[in-house]
Amino acid sequence: MSLSRFCIEQRQKEKDTLKKLIGYCLAGSAVFHVGLLVSLALLPEKAAVSEEPMELIVLD
Question: pTM for this one?
Answer without folding.
Answer: 0.61
